[in-house]
């Protein structure tokens, strides 16, 4: 069953009518509804194009959070082979909000690390909705160190509303763990590629995305704070999240202009969830292109380029 966003309600009505016609035809072989259903399909296709032609930042936030949007484990299953998950931070526990392990990408050994949100109530609770605790970031540090030791490129898949702000996480050094993960991203002398597949929220995302190349899916978002959080702080009213989303410049297109993102990966019409196979192909091609580009640089050049990239962030947009 398709989940529709608020602004997609007119589309839901048309696609629902087309499906009703086909259901009636399946129950009665004598009914011929092919022409009527095809007409509704064409109408739905045109409406979908109109709805997604010029999405507002807030609507992009909604698409980035769509419950059917593919998550980290989906990408791992589709893009990588011989994936061997590695668990635990060797200090406290294994954080299921962070998936990571050894794998092959197009036959090349790599380390893949990402936030996993889960797909239903049970798995979302198990993965803490993709909000990592300190042990999640320390696991990521451990895996990045291992990748650097064996000369493996690191690929991160970012999809989190932010690091978990709970009492236990703070007691175990949440901010220090995020800082250590960000520091490790800057230090490792291997190619580091980050792909923001949904939400990139605050330091919880930066800890995985301080990379040589940062790619964003077309309808993903990346921001220091959520629009709701920003609205609550600035206007004392979370309902002003639409205005906050405009002000935060959190879309892939804005961040490409500012130099935060290096590449915007096109999504299928209607978002990544409407054609997962096409989305996976686009992400695969983008990662392959970035790996090929970075493969020309040695360790020292990779570290130097990475540091320079982050020191210069925003200067292009500010100059304009």
Q: What's the overall geometry? A: globular
* Number of E-state strands: 8
Q: What's the CATH class label of the largest domain?
A: Alpha Beta
Strand proportion, as a percent range, falls in 15-25%
Low-confidence stretches: none
CATH level-two architecture of the largest domain: Alpha-Beta Complex
What is the CA–CA distance across the termini? 45 Å
- Count the helices. How many? 15
Share in helix = 40-55%
CATH 4th-level superfamily of the largest domain: 2-enoyl-CoA Hydratase, Chain A, domain 1
**Helix-strand topology string:** HHHHEEEHHEHHEHEEHHHEHHH
CATH topology of the largest domain: 2-enoyl-CoA Hydratase, Chain A, domain 1
Gyration radius, to the nearest Å?
A: 21 Å
Largest beta-sheet characterization:
8 strands, mixed
What's the mean pLDDT score? 93
* Structural class based on helices, strands and sheet pairing: alpha/beta
């Amino acid at each position: 069953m398709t989940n529709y966003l608020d602004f997609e309600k007119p589309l839901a009505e048309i696609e629902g009518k087309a499906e009703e016609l086909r259901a009636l035809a399946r129950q009665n072989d004598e009914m011929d509804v092919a022409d009527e259903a095809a007409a509704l399909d064409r109408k739905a296709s045109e409406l979908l194009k109109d709805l997604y032609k010029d999405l507002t930042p807030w609507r992009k936030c909604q698409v980035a959070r769509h419950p059917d949007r593919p998550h980290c484990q989906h990408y791992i299953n589709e893009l990588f082979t011989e994936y061997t998950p590695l668990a635990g931070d060797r200090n406290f526990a294994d954080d299921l909000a962070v998936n990571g392990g050894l794998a092959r990408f197009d036959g090349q050994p790599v380390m893949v690390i990402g936030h996993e949100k889960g797909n239903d109530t049970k798995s979302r609770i198990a993965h803490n909705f993709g909000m990592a605790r300190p042990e999640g970031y320390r696991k990521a540090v451990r895996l990045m160190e291992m990748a650097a030791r064996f000369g493996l490129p690191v690929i991160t898949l970012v999809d989190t509303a932010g690091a978990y702000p709970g009492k236990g996480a703070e007691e175990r050094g949440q901010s220090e763990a995020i800082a250590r993960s960000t520091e490790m991203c800057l230090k490792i002398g291997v190619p580091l590629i980050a792909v923001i597949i949904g939400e990139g929220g605050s330091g919880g995302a930066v800890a995985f995305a301080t990379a040589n190349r940062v790619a964003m899916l077309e309808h993903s978002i990346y921001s220091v704070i959520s629009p709701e959080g920003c609205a609550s702080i600035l206007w004392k009213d979370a309902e002003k999240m639409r205005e906050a989303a405009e002000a935060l410049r959190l879309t892939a297109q804005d961040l490409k202009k500012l130099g935060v993102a290096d590449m915007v990966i096109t999504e299928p019409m209607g978002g990544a969830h409407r054609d997962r196979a096409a989305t996976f192909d686009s992400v695969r091609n983008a990662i392959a292109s970035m790996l090929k580009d970075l493969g020309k640089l040695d360790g020292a050049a990779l570290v130097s380029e990475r540091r320079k990239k982050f020191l210069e962030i925003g200067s292009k947009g500010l100059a304009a």
